[in-house]
Specification:
With 304 residues, the chain is mainly beta. The protein folds into two domains: 133 residues, no CATH class; 135 residues. 5% of the residues lie in helices and 54% in strands. The protein is built from three helices and 23 strands. It has an eight-stranded antiparallel beta sheet, with no helix packed on it. A hairpin with a 5-residue loop joins strand 2 and strand 3.
Length: 304
């Protein structure tokens, strides 16, 4: 269970009812990509038996503008000032389903593409369940080690970062429509404002963790999110210690950078999709002439 405090909500008129609020979510792992279910209690005044339509975004950057010619059929959200990359759980999301309930303990049964609910005013307040969906795509990273090299050296991973060459913040335009596929389009444009960060750490361990002992090959260890329109700008940076099998002290700390543009151009990701990339630690030597030849491994993209 996680808590955040950056939820932007608007009722039928488009009037903001809460620019910030506290809410919780749990992950539903029965679908791929994951669906996130939310429960939120608003302090806004609503009327019993009146029809309302609720739109909003989470992790929305500096502001969110919500407009519509008819809220019963959909809306356009302009989400301003989001970062080009984000850690999992910090990427921008929008509401894609609403369920009015008399109590938050009511069984969660939101219909995707339904933005309306009837005011119930139970115990002086209305309750809603919200379904949100991702606007960014996501990458997970898993690691392996060359079999022969693993017999000679131990590799402990210390840091993995997702980096974008985009140095400006982004504005997102999201078109929503009622129905089974509510997000009809998402476009991202660079602004003139400098990004707070174009690099996000998706994994860090000060002491380092032994790749071969901690994760089976192919098991993801970290997740980073990005705007699909700018996938060609991405790279992954890794920092790791190299150990002799007989020594508890690291011989050296190494770093490797891999561009992700080719792999993502060959197999593009759409909004809300997730892809795993396996990175393999490999030796750089042709022949072992000294111990120094063993202490300079690099990391290359192995598979996707």
């Amino acid at each position: 269970m996680h808590e955040y405090a950056t939820l932007w909500l608007a009722l039928t008129s488009g009037t903001t009812i809460d620019s910030q609020g506290t809410y919780t979510y749990t992950q539903d792992t029965s679908t791929e990509p994951p669906t996130w279910s939310w429960s939120y209690t608003s302090s806004a005044k609503v009327w019993e038996t009146k029809q309302y339509y609720l739109y909003g975004a989470a992790n929305y950057g500096s502001s969110c503008e919500i407009t519509s010619s008819g809220f019963s059929s959909g809306a356009t959200l302009t989400i301003n000032g989001v970062e080009p990359v984000a850690a999992s759980g910090s990427d921008p999301l929008v509401i894609v389903g609403v369920q009015g309930v008399t109590d938050l303990s009511t069984e969660w049964a939101v219909t995707e593409g339904n933005f309306g609910y009837m005011g119930v005013k139970e115990n002086g307040k209305d309750n809603v369940h919200l379904l949100l969906d991702h606007l960014y795509s996501a990458l997970t990273f898993s690691f392996s080690i060359d079999d022969d090299y693993a017999k000679l050296r131990t590799i402990k991973l210390k840091k993995v970062s997702l980096k974008s060459d985009i140095t400006k913040k982004l504005n997102l335009t999201v078109n929503l429509a009622s129905g089974a596929s509510p997000i009809t389009s998402v476009t991202a444009e660079q602004t003139t404002d400098a990004a707070t960060t174009s690099l996000v750490e998706v994994f860090t361990d000060q002491d380092g963790v032994d790749i071969s002992q901690t994760w089976p090959v192919g098991k993801p260890i970290s997740t980073g999110c990005f705007a699909a329109d700018f996938a060609s700008s991405l790279s992954v940076e890794c920092e790791y210690d190299v150990y002799d099998k007989a020594s508890p002290q690291p011989l050296t700390t190494r770093a490797a950078v891999n561009s992700l543009s080719a792999i993502l151009e060959a197999s593009p990701l759409a909004r809300g999709q997730i892809k795993n990339i396996t990175l393999k630690v490999v030796p750089t030597y042709l022949y072992i002439l000294s111990d120094n030849d063993l202490d300079n491994p690099t990391i290359k993209i192995s598979s996707n």
